[in-house]
User: What shape does this take?
Amino acid sequence: MVFIVLKHLAGYMRAYKPLAIFFFVTLFLDLIFMSLAPLSFQFLIDKAILPKDLHAFSLIIIILAASGIFCLSAGVFSDYALAKLSARVQQDLRKQLFEHMQQVNLAFFQKTRSSELLSYFTVDLPAIERAMNAILTVGIQSFSVVVISTAVLFYLQWSMALAILLGAALIFAGPYLLGARAQAINVAHKEQLDHLTGDIQENIRAQKVVKGFNLQQAMTHKFVGRLQTMYLIHYRKNVINAQLERIPLISLLLINLSIIGLGSYLALHGHITIGALVAFFTMYTSMGNSVFNLTATIPVFTDASVSIERMNKLLHAPKETTGKALMTSPLNQLPDIRFSDVSFRYNEEQEALKKINLHIKAGTTAAFVGSSGSGKSTLVQLVLGFYDPSEGQLEINGIPMQELSRSSYRDQLGVVFQDNFLFRGSIMDNIRISKPTATREEIMEAAKQAEIHVFIMTLPNGYDTLVLDDGSNLSGGQRQRLAIARAILKDPQLLLLDEATSALDPIAEASINRTFRDLSRNRTVITVTHRLSSITGADCIFVFDKGELVDMGTHEEMLAREGYYKELWEKQNGMLISNSGQEADIDEERLAKLPFFQGIDHEVLKEIRSLFNTETFSAGQSVIHAGDQGEKFYLIARGRVEVSRKDANAIDGKLRLAILEDGDHFGEIALLNNVPRTADIAAITPCVFLTLQRKGLHYVLSKHPEINNRVRQTLKERK
Assistant: This one.
């Protein structure tokens, strides 16, 4: 363990050899004085005090003072050198860790908790710094004092020196025997610290959900459980560290008693002089303290060895695949994308894509559509180069993605994700990240096209307004527009839009879609959406279901084929949303497509239609709680919701059951009976629902007994 830590620390300092040499030279001068100073007692007593020789006394004092000033001054310089050396090493390690984090593949981040990554910088690097400072100060000083003192002690009295060496073995026996246990407990402690940090970090980010679902008590109970586990590990860590210090101290006291008795006996029989005895005891006391200090650094070594091992886990994580072929951009050559028998799985159990064959011609607009989990977003991640296909080949302009330089490729693409991250800094900085050389005028023009300029100018500091953590001082729609402005500013050859307008109201969405249509000229565009009305003009629409490509063609071609695409279209068609996004309506034809209303007379459907109300929910807001009494049916006119159930075995305490989107419905059992809800449903994006109360429907159906019986029977069958 000690040698592993020393090897790594030596490697860290190798880049600063001149500074390290200067430190060791000055430290050595300081240590020489500290180690040999006790020997002066022999000369003072035997050469000056007992003979009463004032000249010898003055000479010894002058030599001591001069050498002390010189050596202690060297010690001051060594302190400054160590401070600089330690800061440099920490700077290099932080940079090395951070740079490697930028290069590891995305799968590593998905398998690693963010709290663990943070702990490398907040827990492990400080542990290495403590070890480095301990070794280069207490460690070297104590070791040098022990070596020099041992030599001097043998010079003064070999038999007592031999006894001390035998006792030193006893001092180090305890730490050696406890070392493995100490290391295991340190590993467990850091793992629990990771979990604790992760719980706090997650709770801070999930405050809307916590309060929306009234989970404050549940979160506190969960955190108290974590604290109890942390307490037990922390207690064991403190106990083992105390033992690592206590056992050497007890051993040292036993050796002290033995040496005092043996030394006094030898002095009584004239085997050593009084001056030599005083010098021996003084030297031994200094040596004993140094031995104890060495043993006291063992917990620091243990902590550092665990941290080095943890950091190596990150530093040896596989980097993102990248080739050497540059993505050149000759005039009029836009990205041409081809998938050939591409399959992809995130793990052995989860196959996300199955034998995908498709071709997106250069300069065209392609749309990926399908229900949630159909694989359309996974395809975009492959195009972005976040993952490599498990099977098959993805080619850009005829070059396999594995051979393509990711850097040169990504320089020519722009992307707008569904969930867009905003960095700490000004609004201008957040837009400019896609093109660092952009002028203020270019940034403002991009913001105008993204329809966020007017809002920015209403802010007190305009484009210099600071963005808080995760853009918490901006709405979801405003954050989305800033992300769109980034993509517009870059003016890329390949534009990827992954649910880019999902957080916008209908007016803003229609306007931004017009902007995207303008942007699609002279570039290749891939858009992923669940809202089919926004991609009717795409050059080619690719339809996915359960990881398979089930249809492709233009909007008109696939409607004529009456396949899966037409089912998706009809599910979303027939619902109208006001420009404000606050009111929705449904026509009788769409209402008749609901399974329990099929075949009902048009006039009755018109009456049922009049019973629907509009309800809106913001992103993250709870729609339904499990256990609530159900008396309402929901039809999603616009938006996405997550269906989940509480699960103590899940990482975040819930099991995700489904994602529902435009045209989907839920809660139909509530139209039959007032039964408790069986799952939690929360809005992922801003949502507009058409809702129908059970009492209102029963009132209408009671006037039509034959229809009432048929609707009830259909609902029972769907239970």
Notes: Residues 576-717 form a domain with the Jelly Rolls fold (CATH 2.60.120.10). The longest helix spans residues 216-268. The chain has a mean pLDDT of 80. The first strand starts at residue 337 and ends at 345.
